[in-house]
Design brief:
By secondary structure, the protein is an alpha+beta fold. Helices cover 26% and strands 26% of the residues. The protein has a four-stranded mixed beta sheet, with helices on one face. The longest helix has 14 residues, at 14-27. It starts with a strand and ends in a 10-residue tail after the last helix.
């Protein structure tokens, strides 16, 4: 089953661009899809507005500000995501 990652960001956020690049590298070998949302677009994300980037897996926060490739692989694997091959 393919998991869903959501990157909460906003235009002009350099840390958001960095996190997206890491996520895209990991996605090449993981069974996940990525969506990106403007943190200002949903009132439910109000508490994240000064904390971006934030990465959610199936709606649950798994990383904030920065994440490395190995850390992201570990976080996804802990949630049962196959990080060794793309389906």
């Amino acid at each position: 089953m393919t998991g869903r990652l959501t990157l909460l960001s906003k235009p002009g956020c350099h840390l958001c661009h960095e996190m997206r690049a890491v996520v895209e590298k990991v996605m090449a070998a993981a069974d996940v899809v990525l969506g990106e949302e403007d943190v200002r677009s949903d009132p439910a994300w109000r508490h994240y507005r000064l904390e971006i980037p934030v990465l959610l897996y199936e709606g649950v926060e798994i990383a904030r500000h920065r994440v490395g490739e190995e850390d992201l692989r570990r976080l996804l694997a802990a949630r049962g995501v196959d990080v060794t091959s793309r389906s």
